[in-house]
């Protein structure tokens, strides 16, 4: 999970689209399943966890 957090941080500061694509490609190439699948789902908006509500996330943070 720390590697995914680092990826998100790097994506938020990468200036160019090609740099972002390289970051994502490198992450996916070096991350084993199931973490790779979860990351891909999170990045594409396909991750749905009905039990996790925004209020729960705010409380955890």
Describe what this molecule looks like in 3D:
With 61 residues, the chain is an all-alpha fold. The protein has one domain. The protein contains four helices and no strands. It has helices spanning 2-13, 17-30, 35-44, 54-60. Helix 1 (2-13) runs antiparallel to helix 2 (17-30). The chain is globular and about 35 Å long. The mean pLDDT is 90.
Helix fraction, binned, reads: over 70%
Total of DSSP H or I helical runs spanning 4+ residues: 4
Structural class: mainly alpha
**Secondary-structure element pattern, one letter each:** HHHH
The poorly predicted ranges are none
Count of folded domains: 1
Shape: globular
* Global mean pLDDT: 90
- The Rg value, from CA coordinates, equals 13 Å
- Please describe the biggest sheet, giving its number of strands, its sense, and whether it closes into a barrel: none
> How many β strands by DSSP?
0
Strand content: under 5%
End-to-end CA span: 15 Å
Quick structural overview:
The chain is an all-alpha fold. The protein is built from four helices and no strands.
Topology, element by element:
Blueprint: H1 2-13, H2 17-30, H3 35-44, H4 54-60
Helix pairs in contact: 1-2
């Amino acid at each position: 999970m720390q590697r995914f957090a680092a990826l998100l941080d790097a994506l938020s500061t990468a200036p160019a689209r090609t740099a972002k694509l390289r970051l994502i490609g490198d992450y996916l190439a070096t991350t084993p399943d199931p973490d790779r699948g979860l990351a891909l789902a999170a990045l594409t908006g396909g991750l749905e966890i009905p039990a996790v509500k925004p209020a729960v996330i705010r409380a955890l943070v």
